[in-house]
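[Q] Does anyone have a clean structure-token version of this?
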Amino acid sequence: MSQDAQAHEAGASRLLVAPTVGLAAFMEVLDISIANVALQHIAGSLSASTDESTWVLTSYLVTNAIILPVSGWLATTIGRKRYFLGCIIGFSVTSFLCGVAPSLATLIIARGLQGITGGGLQPNAQAILADAFPPQKRGLAFAAYGIAVVFAPAIGPTLGGWITDNFSWRWVFLLNVPVGALLTLLATQVLADPPEFIARRRARLREGIRLDYIGFALLAVGMCALQVVLDKGQEDDWFASSFITDLAIAAVIALGGFIIWELRRDDPIVDLRILANRNFAIGNLLMFMLGFILLGSTVLLPLFVQTQLGYTATDAGLVISPGGFAIMLLMPLVGALVSRVDARFLIAFGLVATGLALLWMTRFDADIDYATVAWARVYQSAGLAFLFIPINTVAYLGLTPEKSNTASAIINMMRNIGSSVGISFATTLIARRQQYHQNMLIEHVTPYGSAYQAAIQHLQQAYLAGSANAADALHQAQAKLYALVQQQATALSYIDSFWIFGVTFLALVPLVFLMGKSVRGAGPAGGH
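[A] Here you go.
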């Protein structure tokens, strides 16, 4: 075969790498959010309570959080292609086990195994793209991956609701099986480990594999405890619960011990020393906040339209779906821009656009229509689309190629933790601010106030016209007024939440310019 023919074949194969690894990452990220809307159906089908069914989500998040940071070490030890294929096959098999689970306990165990097998897909997809494409072409390649990890959480609830309503909750999981089979065939043909990666792996094997058992144990305990705290904290009233308090203490001790232990080892299971790189450290913080805002707001908006506007779960999903499509359309544009514009300016634009969109949401009220809410989500998502690829571009500046697996594992872990914190923060903020505003409003709703008396009399007259007696009409009027107070308190709590999220994002803008300037024409560094 001529050199030109070989180059053409390599280029054609490379074009399939981005959609292959992007679809694999999409499948894994989608499973984090797609099952949320099916919990009530799962609980009813398997004779469990709704609270018990939430462990279907928690078990997945816990095992996923444990495996993510060590996926770089596993890829380096096993081989990146071999590990990636193993993750796809394992994820497909465990998805099948979830779909046919006869009991809740079986489903929870299968979901835990699904989190373990799927945890390596995200970071390895990112590392594969970094090595498969030359610097000037990595922008569009990273766009495929960015679409997967940012679009999936946006479309997940809508897709999950549609599948559950029209088929069965089991197909939420079974759908992964044919997709996984297709991805296995594609990955076998188009993926290959770079020669220098193979050489490093063989050298490591000759030296002997040394598993950091203590580091892994500390990481597993710490991440498990942290994830359960974040997932169950609001439900158990946080530190009023001894269970949550004990887990929080365990998380701090274990993760603190893990950091100290790993920094002292010559061959750590997670090389935390790369966080000494200023760009990478700030990039991780920004990626944490990207997950925080993306998933936090994805929780807030559907809850707002359901509680305040009376939308169904499906309609609530349709509110956030246009934002997902906006991200999908803009990602390729951002991928092209990163090779022409300083990535820091793109990040700053994304932060400002998202922050202003969230502040605009503070103008929502009970009379707002679907189009206004959907367009607000589109504006917010447009800003988010300018963050993922540029953050990766600047974060990897100065890191050597052999650090790409570890860097991908850490930055993906930070985004996932940010997502969990964002969801937990959003639900807690709504509950606490609703209580605060209700207490404030009740102070002004007293039987001795003229406004109260006028409102009660007006409502009582309305209920009397409906053939109620005077006593029943008074009780109905009081109940209606209290319901109005609760509704107003809830609406104000959402306004507070949107304001806090928006201001938080705007406050990050100065941090961006502490990072080093990206080199035009280089594209996302991605570990190089």
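[Q] Thanks! Anything notable?
[A] The CA atoms of residues 288 and 418 lie 4 Å apart.
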